[in-house]
Amino acid sequence: MMRPVVVLNASYEPLTTVSLNRAVLFLVKERAVVVEAVEGATIRSVDREIPLPKVVRLVKYVNVAYMHRPRAWSRRGVLERDAALGCIYCGSKKDPTVEHIQPISRGGDPRGWTNTAVACGPCNNSKGNMSLREWGRPLRYKPRIVTERDTLVLAIAKAGVDPVTYGLA
Ligand SMILES: [Zn+2]
User: Fold this and answer.
1) Domain coordinates of the chain in residue numbers?
2) Which position among 40, 83, 93, 165 has the lowest Cβ density within 10 Å, counted as fewest Cβ atoms?
3) CA of residue 102 to ligand 1 center, whole Å
4) 121-128: long-range contacts, CB 8 A cutoff, minimum separation 24
5) Which CATH number fits domain 70-135: 1.20.1200.10, 1.10.30.50, 2.40.160.40, 3.30.70.20?
6) What is the dihedral of CA 137, 142, 148, 154, to 10 degrees?
């Protein structure tokens, strides 16, 4: 399986991941340069031999304001965001469900990052339509807004590159 290649901005800030083919195209067109390569491995492209890239850097700077914009809310996004934290009420990592902290029937935002969190099935069932106050249990963590940057951190880790090396996570 070919791993995706991490693309850094001209400023070395991580931007995205692309397929190996796409990364090679950037290199051949001299739109990017290799920053990290797989040791001892090269690939032939057109008329030359280039190191097999793991991380490339764009030659020209691109604007990254979009990275700090919130992502569209999704159940999957909540489950991913809170997977490592577990149930917001008891910490259990079993049977994760998406919980609305302020119930929708009581005016809670149905698709708000900060009104949703992972709760285990038993906690979600017991809380039912109660407000947090009526339920009487504190939140173990504060649900945060997910931005494009979070997606990037996951993608970079999947590409086999340490996000910490490039100032993420
Ligand atoms: Zn629970």
Assistant:
1) 5-66+148-166, 70-135
2) 40
3) 16
4) 121/94, 121/95, 121/97, 122/92, 122/95, 123/87, 123/88, 123/89, 123/90, 123/92, 123/99, 124/97, 124/99, 127/89, 127/99, 128/103
5) 1.10.30.50
6) -80
Q: What's the gap in Å between 96 CA and the centre of ligand 1?
A: 8
| pLDDT band for position 133 (cuts 50, 70, 90) | very high
> Are the CB atoms for 22 and 53 separated by under 8 Å?
no
pTM of the model: 0.68
CB 37 within 8 A of CB 5: no
Tell how far the Cα of 97 is from the centroid of ligand 1, in angstroms.
Answer: 10
Tell me the sheet residues that pair with 14: 8
DSSP state of 108: -
pLDDT in tens, 33-84: 999 999 989 988 778 888 999 999 999 998 877 778 899 999 999 999 999 9
Amino acid at 64: V
109: its two tokens: 């935002």
How far away, in angstroms, is 99 Cα from ligand 1 center? 10
